[in-house]
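Batch job 17 of 40 flagged for manual review because the log was empty.
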Amino acid sequence: MIHLIVGNTGSGKTTYANILKKEIGGVVFSMDKWNNILFLPDKKEEDGLQWFLDRIERSESLIMSLILQLENIGVDSILDLGLSKFEHREKFRKFAKDNYIEIKMHFLDILKKTRFSRVMERNETKGDTFEFEVTQENFDFMENWFEKPTASELKNGILMQE
C-alpha cells in the first residue's frame, strides 16, 4: 500500500509519517530530507522553484522504483513528499493504479495559526523534523501553492483536523 501524507507547511506531515511508520512497519520517503541531503548543499542563490521541481521529479522516479520493490516484499510506502497540488497527488494515484497497488490518503487539515507557530518553533529548536529553515516568505508562498484535497480524493482516506 502507498500512504499519501498531505497537508500544508507545518501541518505535522513528517511527525505523522513517522508515527504511521511505527504503527504499520512501513518505509517513509520524506522529500525534505532528500532535498536537504542531496540538493540543498549545491543550491545557488539564483536557483528558483523550477530548480527544486526538477530535482523533486528525478527523486520521485527513484522513489517509485523503490516503492515497487517494497510492494513486492509486502512493505507499505509512506510518502511525505509535500503533495501540495492535485496534479502531484494524481501522479501517484495513477502510478498506484497502473501497478495494482492500494493507496490511502491521509490529510492533515490544521489551522494556519497553529502551523505557522509550529514552523517558527521548529526553526528555533531544530528538533527531530527540522531539515531547513522555513521563512515567513516560504510559508506564505506555500499557503497560496497548496491545493486542498477534494472530497473525491478523501474518499476512503483519513482526515485529521484541528
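Reviewer: the log was empty due to a logging misconfiguration, but the result itself is present. The chain has one domain: 2-161. Unflagging and moving on to job 18.
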